User: What shape does this take?
Amino acid sequence: MSTPFAPELRPGMRLQSQTGPVELIVIRPGPGGILACGGLPMVGPGDVLASAPHAAEAAADAVQLGKRYTDATGTLEVLCTKGGAGPLTLDGAILTIKAAAALPASD
Assistant: This one.
Protein backbone atom coordinates (compact mmCIF):
# COMPACT_ATOMS: atom_id res chain seq x y z
CA MET A 1 0.00 0.00 0.00
CA SER A 2 1.33 3.43 -0.83
CA THR A 3 0.31 6.90 0.27
CA PRO A 4 1.59 10.29 -0.87
CA PHE A 5 4.05 10.27 2.04
CA ALA A 6 4.89 6.54 2.09
CA PRO A 7 5.50 5.29 -1.45
CA GLU A 8 5.58 1.55 -2.12
CA LEU A 9 9.25 0.57 -2.15
CA ARG A 10 10.72 -1.01 -5.30
CA PRO A 11 14.31 -2.06 -6.14
CA GLY A 12 16.18 0.84 -7.77
CA MET A 13 13.77 3.44 -6.40
CA ARG A 14 15.35 6.76 -5.39
CA LEU A 15 14.16 8.46 -2.22
CA GLN A 16 15.09 11.64 -0.40
CA SER A 17 14.57 13.04 3.06
CA GLN A 18 12.09 15.80 3.85
CA THR A 19 14.33 17.03 6.69
CA GLY A 20 17.75 17.32 5.05
CA PRO A 21 20.02 16.29 2.18
CA VAL A 22 19.83 12.47 2.67
CA GLU A 23 19.19 10.48 -0.53
CA LEU A 24 18.86 6.69 -0.87
CA ILE A 25 18.45 3.95 -3.46
CA VAL A 26 16.36 0.92 -2.50
CA ILE A 27 18.34 -2.31 -3.01
CA ARG A 28 15.84 -4.75 -1.44
CA PRO A 29 12.38 -3.40 -0.62
CA GLY A 30 11.51 -5.82 2.19
CA PRO A 31 7.96 -6.43 3.39
CA GLY A 32 6.88 -2.79 3.25
CA GLY A 33 6.36 -0.15 5.86
CA ILE A 34 7.16 3.51 6.26
CA LEU A 35 10.82 4.34 5.59
CA ALA A 36 11.65 7.62 7.34
CA CYS A 37 14.60 9.92 7.95
CA GLY A 38 14.67 12.41 10.80
CA GLY A 39 11.14 11.42 11.81
CA LEU A 40 9.43 12.18 8.48
CA PRO A 41 8.69 9.66 5.70
CA MET A 42 11.11 9.52 2.77
CA VAL A 43 9.63 10.78 -0.52
CA GLY A 44 10.38 10.55 -4.24
CA PRO A 45 12.75 13.14 -5.79
CA GLY A 46 9.91 15.39 -7.02
CA ASP A 47 7.75 15.11 -3.90
CA VAL A 48 9.72 17.13 -1.32
CA LEU A 49 7.61 19.51 0.74
CA ALA A 50 9.09 23.02 0.60
CA SER A 51 7.79 23.85 4.08
CA ALA A 52 9.39 20.81 5.77
CA PRO A 53 11.57 21.72 8.76
CA HIS A 54 15.29 20.95 8.56
CA ALA A 55 16.76 18.69 11.20
CA ALA A 56 19.88 19.72 13.08
CA GLU A 57 22.97 17.69 12.22
CA ALA A 58 23.65 15.07 14.87
CA ALA A 59 26.82 12.99 14.52
CA ALA A 60 25.34 10.00 16.36
CA ASP A 61 22.37 9.77 13.98
CA ALA A 62 24.19 10.78 10.79
CA VAL A 63 23.42 8.78 7.65
CA GLN A 64 26.76 7.97 6.01
CA LEU A 65 27.45 8.27 2.29
CA GLY A 66 28.14 4.94 0.54
CA LYS A 67 26.89 2.77 3.41
CA ARG A 68 24.16 0.16 3.12
CA TYR A 69 21.48 0.20 5.80
CA THR A 70 19.28 -2.74 6.73
CA ASP A 71 16.46 -3.54 9.13
CA ALA A 72 16.75 -6.03 12.01
CA THR A 73 15.47 -8.95 9.89
CA GLY A 74 17.74 -8.17 6.92
CA THR A 75 14.82 -7.98 4.47
CA LEU A 76 15.11 -4.24 3.69
CA GLU A 77 18.35 -2.83 2.28
CA VAL A 78 19.03 0.72 1.10
CA LEU A 79 22.21 2.44 -0.15
CA CYS A 80 22.96 6.01 0.93
CA THR A 81 23.90 8.18 -2.08
CA LYS A 82 23.94 11.48 -0.15
CA GLY A 83 24.62 11.67 3.57
CA GLY A 84 23.17 13.91 6.25
CA ALA A 85 21.23 13.95 9.50
CA GLY A 86 19.17 10.90 10.42
CA PRO A 87 18.27 8.49 11.78
CA LEU A 88 16.84 6.17 9.13
CA THR A 89 13.87 4.18 10.42
CA LEU A 90 11.40 1.60 9.13
CA ASP A 91 8.10 1.76 11.01
CA GLY A 92 9.90 3.42 13.92
CA ALA A 93 12.76 0.87 14.19
CA ILE A 94 16.21 2.37 13.52
CA LEU A 95 18.09 0.88 10.55
CA THR A 96 21.68 -0.23 11.08
CA ILE A 97 24.74 -0.16 8.84
CA LYS A 98 25.12 -3.48 7.06
CA ALA A 99 28.33 -5.29 7.95
CA ALA A 100 30.81 -5.75 5.11
CA ALA A 101 31.14 -9.28 3.77
CA ALA A 102 34.55 -10.87 4.24
CA LEU A 103 36.50 -11.42 1.03
CA PRO A 104 37.74 -14.94 0.32
CA ALA A 105 41.37 -15.60 1.20
CA SER A 106 43.80 -15.71 -1.69
CA ASP A 107 46.45 -18.37 -2.04
Observations:
- The chain has one domain: 14-97.
- The longest strand covers residues 23-29.
- The chain is about 0% helix and 30% strand.
- The chain has a mean pLDDT of 85.
